[in-house]
Amino acid sequence: MLEGVEQIIHQTDPYQLASRKPHNENTVIKLDNLKIGGGNFTLIAGPCAVENPEQITKTAKFLKEEGINFLRAGAYKPRTSPYSFQGLGEEGLILLGRVKEETGLKIVTEALDINTMPLISEYADIIQIGTRNMQNFPLLKSAGAINKPILLKRGMTATLNELLLSAEYILKEGNPNVILCERGIRTFNDHSRTTLDLGAIPVLKEKTHLPVLVDPSHACGHSSRVPALSRAALSVGADGLLIEVHDDPASALSDGLQSLDLPEFSKLYNQIQTLAEVLQRKVN
Ligand code: PEP
Ligand code: MN
User: Fold this and answer.
1) Cβ of 184 below 6 Å from ligand 1
2) Which atom of ligand 1 lies at the shortest distance from residue 48's CA?
3) pLDDT, tens only, 141-162
4) CA angle 199, 202, 206 (to 5 degrees)
5) What are the angstrom distances between the C-alpha of 182 and each of 56, 80, 100, 200, 262?
6) pTM here?
7) Residues 209, 171: contact at Cβ < 8 Å?
8) What φ, ψ does residue 79 adopt, rounded to 5°?
9) pLDDT of 178 higher than 90
């Protein structure tokens, strides 16, 4: 009855901006002519970490030739042990900048803290926030103030409500381009690194308009299981995959066991393209 009021929507979700109510349209993230979300199926691939110029150049050129558009590699790595390889830091970003220039691939890389966020945003096309930082609220706020899409991974012990509220932190600061990623959760399972929660995908698609990717590599921790979980992710309606690929997994400085080698990646990519056609999804 008030002048100027056309419609009242009763919002019962605590994550108001991430909620499908009232934003019924899927968020589609556009990077030049590439689109994430809205029926597209996006493949993001690359080694866990940038290790040296030869490694990242070889992998990037291979992926480009395969038809992949997004290269993901960490320069700053969140490692469980302080004695493990921590990433090349700024030197890694510079190498990513070079391969981007050479190949035109879009760069996805992780920010671990607010201090390096501005530097990382100079090199990255998409900034990843990892599972361990899903509830690092200052980091989420700083991601919200940046003009780059954010790939937000689900915390290893986070509920979907918590994941969506973390996305809300970014959206609330004015950055509408958030991509969610299911990467496995901690359960009683001891047969697998974590448990890929595929059931979360259709639930997230009901609850939010944001694109949802699946990372089978970190979820299962073993390259032999990545293809099956990747096909399953496409089948349950994910918007894309994040896959670890290394030119020589046995010598990888991090996550070698779960990294596909180059021929294994080619084989999986072919399977994904075939399955996507059946499901009428456009692979990019
Ligand atoms: C990674 O992507 O290499 C990574 C560390 O992922 P997560 O945060 O999911 O463990
Ligand atoms: Mn990794």
Assistant:
1) no
2) 3
3) 999 999 999 999 999 999 999 9
4) 135
5) 25, 19, 26, 8, 24
6) 0.97
7) no
8) -105, 140
9) yes
